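User: histidine kinase, Faecalibacterium prausnitzii SL3/3:
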Amino acid sequence: MEQQKTETRSITAEQRKRVEEVCFRSLALIGRNCEYLEQHFDRTGADESTRQAVADIDTAAIQLDRTLTEAITLLEFLREDTKPQLYPIDLCELLQQVAAQSDMIRAQLGVDIRLDYGGCTACCVMADRRDAELLCLHLLSNALHASREGGSVCIALRRTESGWQLTVTDDGCGLPGEDVQAALENRRSFLGGAQLGLLLCRECCRRMDWSLQLEPAPEKGTQGCGAHSAVHGRKPP
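Assistant: Predicted structure for histidine kinase:
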């Protein structure tokens, strides 16, 4: 019975791999055809509605690609096929890499990103680097989705008794449960998404024995942090 159970799990993993290959191959084909049509239109001309239709297809393909990647990663975490590899990493260095595109984000979205280490130069925690990067990127992505042009996102690190607390604060639409207006703004900000980002954040924290919580920001917006999220990461032993 145990052998049959293992074989079924192995077949399922193989099927999953084939599904991934088919999906991403199809998305790549859509992308190449959109690029071809845009080049063709540049040579032959096309009306604005036709160009917009191709642009919409390309945008939908990019969104589907991102959603598939998130869903596949989430399934991997839930199946526990791979265990996290916990090593000491410097959160200050990691966050500098995450925020390296702040100039481009400001130019594209009009949102400022600010890092605040509270005077610290190194913030060492026990983490799986891939999980920690995924966590930080999704917390930042959620904050940017909630923000408006002219807004700001603050990424702060503070020492606690057991480790470090990472806090990502935006001044955007706020949590959906605060009031009716906040719920409407939140729905508009995240419309069309699969809302897998926070699930991935929670799974990353669970795997690394961190903790995550969401709460209203002191003034407006949403605050997410991790070594309890706020996010709380454990110090190396």
